[in-house]
Amino acid sequence: MIRAPIINTALNAASTLRQVLSGKNAFEEVISTRRAQELCLRDVSSAPLWLLACRRARGRAEKAFATGSPTEVANSLARWSELHRFGEVMSHVGALRPTFAQRHLIKLAESWYEAAVARGVRSGLLKPAEAQGIPAVSLLRASVEDSTAQLFALAAKQQQQLQNCLQKGLGGQAQGYLHMNDEDLRGLTEMMKSEYASHLGSAAVWRRAKYKVSISWPDMHKISDYCQNASTRQRMFEAYYAGFDSSVDEAALELLRTRRQLAQKLGFRSWADLEMAPLALGDEAGARRFLDLCWKDAQAALAPVHKRIEEWSSRDASGSSERRGKVSQADEAFWHSHLSRQSDIWKFAEYLSLEKSLPGLLDVVGKVYGVTFREATAPGYFSRLPSGWHTSVKIFEVLDGAPRPAGVKGDPGKGRLGYVYLDLYARMSMLGRQAVELAGAGILCPGHAYVSCKLFRPSLGRSKLLNVEEAVALAHELGHAIHMLCHMGSPCDFSDLPLDLVELPSTLIETIILQPKSLAKYATHHTSNRPPPESLIRSCQRNQRFFINALQNASIGMGLHAEAFDPFKATPADLRREAVSLWQRYSLVPADPAFHPLGTDAGVHVAAGGNQVAYLVCYLRVAGILQAKAARKDGDAVWLQRDFPKRIRGQLLDQKFAPKGWASRFPAKAESQPRPHPLPPLPKDTSALLQLAAG
Ligand SMILES: [Zn+2]
Question: For residue 22, how far is its CA from the centre of ligand 1 (angstroms)?
Answer without folding.
Answer: 41
